Amino acid sequence: MLTGKKIAVIGALLSGLAIALGAFGAHALKGLLSPERLETYHTAVSYFQWHSLVLMIVGLLFLKTKQPSFRLASITLVLGMVIFSGSLFALIATDISLFGAITPVGGALFIGSWLLIARGLHVGLIES
């Protein structure tokens, strides 16, 4: 069962991973990638980091309110991170442009996540 505590812990672990990915990009990839590809890498890491932090918050909100919208938001956040950032990482690693075409699917999942969070805040905080 996906509990608020598990969601928050996953968010914290993914935040740590985002820091490691950022450090890797800053130190190991700086001389290997073109400035354009390095910017793409930073975008992928930035979205990954921000949404990891949001995932922690969503987990805590779910723990407090038990609002199902927060559980669903956590799932769409993780899927969005995997598809959005993952497709950009794959694009950088392979230079296959098809991966860039997948990225908007992750963006749409992020938008859906934020709508679910708004619903959870509206309904969940009224009830608690």
What does this structure look like?
The protein is mainly alpha-helical and 128 residues long. 88% of the residues lie in helices and 0% in strands. The chain contains four helices and no strands. Helix 1 (4-27) packs antiparallel against helix 2 (35-65), helix 2 (35-65) runs antiparallel to helix 3 (68-94) and helix 2 runs parallel beside helix 4. The radius of gyration is 16 Å and the shape is elongated. The mean pLDDT is 95.
Give the arrangement of secondary structure elements.
Elements lengths: L3 H24 L7 H31 L2 H27 L3 H30 L1
Largest sheet: none
Mean of pLDDT: 95
Which structural category do the helix and sheet elements fall into? Answer: mainly alpha
Percent helix range: over 70%
Query: DSSP helix count?
Result: 4
One letter per element, helices H and strands E, the order comes to: HHHH
- How far the N terminus sits from the C terminus, by CA atoms, comes to 22 Å
The low-confidence runs, each spanning 5 or more residues with pLDDT under 50, are none
Number of strands: 0
| Beta-strand percentage range | under 5%
Radius of gyration: 16 Å
- Assign an overall shape: elongated
Pick out its properties.
single chain; 128 residues; mainly alpha; 4 helices
Q: What's a concise summary of this model?
A:
This protein is about 90% helix and about 0% strand. The protein is built from 4 helices and no strands. It has helices at about 5-25, 35-65, 70-95, 100-125.
